[in-house]
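Let us practice reading a record.
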Amino acid sequence: MVDFADLKADIESEHPGWVVWRSDTGRWYAIRSGDLTDDRLGAAPAMILSSDDEAGLRAQLDEQALAEGARGRG
């Protein structure tokens, strides 16, 4: 079984600007980190994500990255 700390580190390295944790009930969360200026808050599709599992959280983070990329090209 893969250690949570390793999974957390992998996800956070793939998605800079997000902090990942898992609740006592096993639910996965990610929250934006860093300098949260008004511009960044207004441009962000989501500030907090949650999922029942690692795969679901990764999918949501990928969706956020795509949405941010589309806004940057808009």
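A brief commentary: The helical segments are 4-14, 38-43, 54-73.
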